[in-house]
Amino acid sequence: MTYLAAINAGIVEEMRRDDSVFTMGQDIRSGTYGVYPVEEFGSRIRNLPISEAANVGTAVGAALAGLRPVLDITFSTFLYSAADQIVNQAAKSRYMFGGQADLPLVIRATMYYGGSQAAHHTDRPYPMFMNVPGLKIVAPASAADAKGLIKAAIREPDPVLVFEDGNLWGLFAVEGVVEVRGSIAG
């Protein structure tokens, strides 16, 4: 199983376990960034427009309403466009509501480098978000880490940013040994 397949498997397992879990993102139904069983989940797999601030705001609202959204931002650098929603809404909601509100939100953001990616696609914004009270940050290093951490993030009552390295997406975990088959980054 590749790193990317492990993440998607973890999300699908959690969607089967809990009806309040759903995933959304740009081109998510097309299979570009993983394969989800659209026939099984229907509207729990949602395509979104290119509007990161609106997408994070929608996910924050869904989480406050009792759902467990898994939002795929795709390019981690576009988190800057949604920083207000992440920092001032998602991260602070528990505190703003006196501990009475959970915000079970997972935001997946992929970091890229190489492969002729432009500057807007190759930044590493996780250090900035690591300093925000109320946010949890994870950066899986292997397929096993990726699956376990995405499942734990989905079950978490607070917002979690999952930073994936796009260059790891094609790595396979085989009996504890990691090997590369093909190249995702280009």
Keywords, separated by commas or semicolons:
7 helices; two-stranded antiparallel sheet; six-stranded parallel β-sheet; Rossmann fold; 186 residues; disordered C terminus; 8 strands; single chain; alpha/beta
Q: How far is the first residue's CA from the last residue's CA?
A: 20 Å
**Beta strands, count:** 8
The CATH class is identified as: Alpha Beta
Portion in helices: 25-40%
Q: State mean pLDDT (0 to 100 scale).
A: 85
Output the radius of gyration.
16 Å
Discrete helix count: 7
Low-confidence spans:
174-186
Profile the largest sheet. 6 strands, parallel
Rough shape? globular
CATH topology: the name is Rossmann fold
Helix/strand-derived category reads: alpha/beta
CATH structural architecture = 3-Layer(aba) Sandwich
Tell me the number of structural domains: 1
Strand content: 15-25%
Order of SSEs: HEHEHEHHEHEHEEE
Strand order of the largest sheet: 2-1-3-4-6-5
The CATH homologous superfamily name equals Thiamin diphosphate (ThDP)-binding fold, Pyr/PP domains
